[in-house]
Amino acid sequence: MEKNEHKTPCSEDENIKACLFGQRIKDTVRNKDLDGLFSLAIDGELMWGPRRSFVKDKEFEQIFDQDWIDKVLSHPPNSVGWRGWMIAHGHVWYKNVNGEFKIVSINGDVKEETPNDLPIGWRYKGKILPYDSFTKEWISSDNFEAFEEHFKIKTKNVDFRRNPGKYFGKEIGHLNPIEAPWRDGFYVEIAVAIDSINFDQPFETESPYEAFGRGIFTKRSDYDETFYTILGEIKKEHCSELAPNLKGKCKESYVLWLGDYGGGSIGYLFIAGIFGLFELENGKEYIVPLKYFWPEVRKYSLVNKTMALDYLESIK
After folding, report:
1. Phi, psi of 12 (to 5 degrees)
2. Tens of pLDDT, residues 129-167
């Protein structure tokens, strides 16, 4: 049998359904059918790509320029193993979801801009708060598990990890670090004391990644990068409502999108959350996490940013 030098992923019988779905995607792009394109996507929001509410009532060319259209139409679907399938080097990603192919990510679209009056980074007395001022749940969850065990919090993996502000001043009786149960002399914190923050860390206000937009970018090494940006401001009254038991005053509050990169193929791990600057009755100040936006699945995907933007719209 002669070897087929022009064999493509779509030449394989088991890939026919995937390739036919890729053709459906290209047909909607060719017809500039925005509703049709999103009808092929996963339920809810994309793992990466424009929000459904952002594209609503817009024309196709307002979201995708001609260069994006041309690239999608000129490239065949390509299998990328366990990651699924892509078109045009990742402009569109799709995969089998519960037995049916669905678009999961769209890249290269027109980005939704945050309001121009928002600061690029969160400033405290004129100095930029560094990334590590804002606690996020570790990928191992060990830091939150330590607090759940220490303070006997019974809502593991659910409410406490989404709405920690409700627990400060009630189940969590103080904002100080606690000793980790897995190592003597090692402490973990969720609320971060202002007087413990190192403000002298180097940073840039532009990241090298276009998709991130403006924000506070720090690179300590090839395997240690961080980034955060402000998505919106929270009124002080609402900030206090998110921590109803904390005996102190909310002085400032923002919704942040923040992520870090530790090397390897996993890439950046992003979360979105509401944080507040609180002054307690004793005069001490803390950055307190009040609410995180965790989707049911795809915890560290763009979905959490989308949820945060939707939340901001809901409280206007």
Report:
1. -85, 135
2. 999 999 999 988 999 999 999 999 986 668 999 999 999
Q: What is the pLDDT of residue 4?
A: 43
Q: In the prediction, which pLDDT does 8 show?
A: 59
Cβ proximity of 292 and 162 under 8 Å: yes
Angle at 161 between CA 186 and CA 83, to 5 degrees: 100
**211: pLDDT confidence band, cut at 50, 70 and 90?**
confident
DSSP for 168-223, please give it: BTTTB---S-EE-TTSTT-EE-SSEEGGG--TT---EEE-S-GGG-EEEEEEEETT
Q: Which pLDDT does position 157 carry in this prediction?
A: 61
11, 94, 104, 136, 225 from 49: Cα distances, Å: 29, 12, 9, 23, 22
Give yes or no for a contact between 86 and 49, defined as CB atoms under 8 angstroms apart: no
Taking the C-alpha atoms of residue 164 and residue 207, their distance in angstroms, rounded to an integer, is 29
Nearest to 311 by CA among 256, 245, 250: 256
| The token pair that represents 101 in the structure block | 């192919």
Report d(CA 67, CA 34) in Å as an integer.
16
